[in-house]
Amino acid sequence: MAIQEKCRIEDHKQVGPRHYKLTLASQYLASHAQPGQFVNVRCCETSDPLLRRPISLHRIDAQKGMIELLYEVVGRGTELLSKKPVGQELDLLGPLGAGFKIDPAKKIHLMAGGGMGIAPLRALAEQVTGRGSRVAGQAVYILIGAKNKESLIGEDELRKTTDQVQTATDDGSAGKKGVVTDLLLDFLDSQLSVTSYPLSVIYACGPRLMLKAVAEIARQKKIDCQLSLEERMACGIGACKGCPVKTVSGYKMVCKDGPVFDAKELVWN
Ligand SMILES: Cc1cc2nc3c(=O)[nH]c(=O)nc-3n(C[C@H](O)[C@H](O)[C@H](O)COP(=O)(O)OP(=O)(O)OC[C@H]3O[C@@H](n4cnc5c(N)ncnc54)[C@H](O)[C@@H]3O)c2cc1C
Ligand code: FES
Which ligand number lies closest to the CA of residue 38? Predict the structure, then answer.
């Protein structure tokens, strides 16, 4: 169940040109949130911006009662958020939405993140691997893509969960030159046998065009796939009907029914 809570900022660091990592104390969120869920953050005390901003849970540490958010400053809300000092309290609503579903029958977990789409993958990888101590028989591969080397955020952190991390940048300044779906196709064609496809699952988060391409790859290869969608949101709880997405069973709300959907459910046109 989502609650509204004021959480103390325990740490707040700049980790990239416009990127920040925020550590917050919340035993409730750390104990109840699932990877792929998000919190709706009140970025300022005044009414501008009025609406909360949705940010994914980057890490969920129930033992320490802490959560981490990883975000990029893109506009007024995130700009105001980036100025919040350690020690101040931040008003959060969460955990919200439906996160990733981890099927114990799957042994090969392929995670693809584009841009800030990498944010929820750390929590997901930690859940699959049991916070870094490898679970026997489970393999986690993380593929990340960004515009350039400076925007490739979180790679070192993700390497703490698996040594199988591959990167791509649009301009070739780090990793392979290309996009994350190039990495995914290469990986499926060269490093995974067709017989292991039924034991595999793809999880992806990133821009819509990337997700559409990932869905198509998963469909062609007959691999299960879960996609975390990004939509502009207002209420974040399914009340305003402002974040519809077309699915095979009609329109659903990204904030409440998602943001994670089975790729087979989504209608892209
Ligand atoms: C479920 C969910 C989880 C998210 N998780 C993260 C995260 O972990 N880290 C992170 O950095 N960002 C995340 N986002 C995106 C984040 O919510 C937006 O960047 C933020 O709301 C922008 O607020 P702003 O006031 O700074 O910018 P605004 O002034 O509101 O917008 C600035 C620019 O960003 C675009 N924009 C704003 N919101 C979105 C959106 N939801 N999707 C696509 N473009 C948008 C606008 O069109 C505009 O061009 C997430 C979004 C959703 C829906
Ligand atoms: S943001 Fe209001 S219904 Fe999704």
Answer: 1
Tokens (6 digits) for 198: 């039924």
Whether residues 218 and 113 share a domain: the answer is yes
242 lines ligand 2 (CB under 6 A): yes
Atom of ligand 2 nearest to the CA of 236: 1
Do residue 25 and residue 49 come from a single domain? yes
Ligand nearest to the CA of 96: 1
The finding on whether 50 has its CB within 6 A of some atom of ligand 2 is no
If asked whether residues 23 and 68 sit together in one domain, one would say yes
Residue range(s) defining the domain that contains residue 162: 108-228
238 lines ligand 2 (CB under 6 A): yes
What does each C-alpha distance from 228 to 12, 59, 82, 114, 118 come to in angstroms?
25, 16, 24, 11, 11
What average pLDDT does range 91-117 have in this prediction?
94
Phi, psi of 117 (to 5 degrees): -60, -10
**pLDDT for the residue 154:** 86
- Using the mean position of ligand 2's atoms as its centre, give its distance from the Cα of residue 43 in Å: 18
Query: Averaged over 225-246, what is the pLDDT?
Result: 94
Q: Domain of 201: which CATH number?
A: 3.40.50.80
CATH at residue 37: 2.40.30.10
Helix (H, G, I), strand (E, B) or coil at 66: strand
